[in-house]
Amino acid sequence: MNWITNYVRPRINSIFSRREVPENLWTKCDECGQMLFHRELAENLNVCTNCGHHMHISPRKRFEALFDGGVFGKVAVPAPLADPLHFRDQKKYPDRMKAAQKGTGEEEAMLVAEGEIGRTPIVAAAQDFSFMGGSMGMYVGNAIIAAAERAVATHRPLILFSAAGGARMQEGILSLMQMPRTTVAVQMLKEAGLPYIVVLTHPTTGGVTASYAMLGDVQIAEPNALICFAGPRVIEQTIRETLPDGFQRAEYLLDHGMLDRVTPRTKLREELITITRMLMGLPPAVLADLPPPAPTESDAEPAQPVMDPAEKSAEPAPVVPPVKS
Q1: CA dihedral 110, 115, 120, 124 (to 10 degrees)
Q2: Do 68 and 41 share a structural domain?
Q3: What is the pLDDT of residues 22-31, one digit of tens each?
């Protein structure tokens, strides 16, 4: 028996032929600690299959699950001044922006898109909490105005998904000015007789709740979402009293009349289709006839949608047919 041939060589071959296993195949639930396989988690829209905890989901992934077949076109948003106050703390504001853009792959904290849900044309806007805490700056204000103008121009309802930690301190008073600006944008929809539906996700706090996030014709929230102006810790320190369990969570607000519905993310698309068609005076959609949902990462290769600019004229702009996101 040759020791080198029978033992050493196979051992060396096994070491060098060992395949590297990706580190992001499993995700630990923050609520129950369950380890979740990445494909199962993605198919369940980042909702824990064990306890139902709603994890963070990016606006692009949310839109892929919302629109028919995952097909949507991006609405262009005017770019504001890059650094109006020349703000600097531990980092320069432009450096923070570049880091957030690199980490999320998005231009800013809000994505505006248009497409169909249940064959019903809509305009949708979603905030990304992973982009500087989803903070409301001038770009977010421009995005909501662009979404409202596009909805009015094409006579479509607007659905907004909020997720923010408040105003963006790096833009100072300019970020606070987005509260009245977005309120005027919402009023444009109401004067045009178009539905404005808000879906509040975790967390929605600060000046966002004092403006566009609480002005919807229908207010929906995801389960256990934190929805408030000042957080519970600040309130407890101010009034020096212990707050009730679940204070400022979605279910608490529903019980006290501040919300219309609390709907799990996996059932949100069907509910939005029903509400949108009802408010637009359309007949109920037959769910069996609706287009299939977008394929998961395991079923198809990801692709980017075709982006079409938003037009501000009264007539709808020609839209380039988008491809699957």
Answers
A1: 10
A2: no
A3: 667 899 999 9
